[in-house]
Amino acid sequence: MDELPGPLGTSASLALRLGQAIFSISSLLFMCLDVEFYSYTAFCFLVTIMGLVIPWSLTLALVDAFSVFVKRPTIQPGIMSIVVMGDWVLSMLSLAASSSSASVTDLLKASGGSFCTAKLCSRYQLSAAMAFLSWFLSLASSLFNLWLLASL
Amino acid sequence: MDELPGPLGTSASLALRLGQAIFSISSLLFMCLDVEFYSYTAFCFLVTIMGLVIPWSLTLALVDAFSVFVKRPTIQPGIMSIVVMGDWVLSMLSLAASSSSASVTDLLKASGGSFCTAKLCSRYQLSAAMAFLSWFLSLASSLFNLWLLASL
C-alpha cells in the first residue's frame, strides 16, 4: 500500500492539513468577526469545533513538514492509531457542526430577514461552506490514515 | 482479523443492520406522522436520507440472515467495496441529516413555541435522536466492513 498518496508524513498529507487549517480559520473568522453567533447553539458548536480542528491540523502539518523536509521517521502503529482516532472524531464533529450551522442559516434566511440581515446571512453561509470544505479535507486525511493503519 | 465481530455475514452485523432499520423507521415515523415537516429543508433532508437508509439496511440484513442461517458465502472484495462505499456515504449523510434536524429543532424550540407546539417539538427531537442512533450503528457497520476490506 506504499503507492497510496495521502498518509501521515507525505507531502500530500501536508497539503491536506494546510488546507484544513486554512478553511477552518476562514470559517472561524467569518463566524466570529461578529458578535451575534452566541444566540445560536449551532453556531457556538461550529466555533468550538473549528477551534479544535485548527490546532490539530496545524500540529499534524508541522509533523508532516518535518517528515517531508528534514527526515522521514518510521511510522509506529500506536501513534498512527491516535492520529486516526483524532482525525475520525474531528471529521465527524466538523461534519455535524457544518451541517447544523448550514441548516440553521437556511432557516434564518427563509424567515425573511427578520433574524439576520442579508450581509450577515451570507456570512453565516460562507462560514458553513468553509466548514464543509474543511470537513472534506479532514475526511480524506482520515481515510488515507485509516487505510495505512489497517495495512500496517 | 477473523476475530473482529462485525463484518458482513455475521450475526453481529445482522444485529447492527436490524438496529439501523428499526431506528430509521422510528425516526421516519416520528417525523412523518405529521404534515408540517415540508416547511423545513432540514426535516425534508432527514426524511429523504432515512428513506434511503431503510431499504439499504433491510437488504443487507437479508444478506446477513442468509449468511448466518443458511450458508456462508465467500466474501468478494468487489462486493465488499460497494457495501463499504454505500455504508460510508449513508452514514455521512445520516450524520449530516440528524445533526441539522437537531439544530433546527433546537432553534424552533428556543423561539418559544411560536413555530411548534411542545408536543410537536418533542416529536422532532425524538426523530432527530432516533436518526443519531441509526447513524451510530451505521458507523459501526461501516468501520467493521472497512477494516475487513483493508485486511483482505
TrEMBL record, chains A, B:
Superkingdom in the source lineage: Eukaryota
Alphabetized InterPro entries for the sequence: CASP_dom, CASPL-5
Name of the molecule in the record: CASP-like protein
PANTHER family: CASP-LIKE PROTEIN 5B3, CASP-LIKE PROTEIN 5C1
Annotated family: Belongs to the Casparian strip membrane proteins (CASP) family.
Binding partners and assembly: Homodimer and heterodimers.
Protein's membrane topology: Multi-pass membrane protein
Predominant subcellular localization, coarse grouping: membrane
CC annotations in GO: plasma membrane
Keywords: Cell membrane, Membrane, Transmembrane, Transmembrane helix
Transmembrane regions: 12-30, 37-58, 78-97, 129-150
Compartments where found: Cell membrane
Casparian strip membrane protein domain boundaries: 9-137
Pfam families: CASP_dom
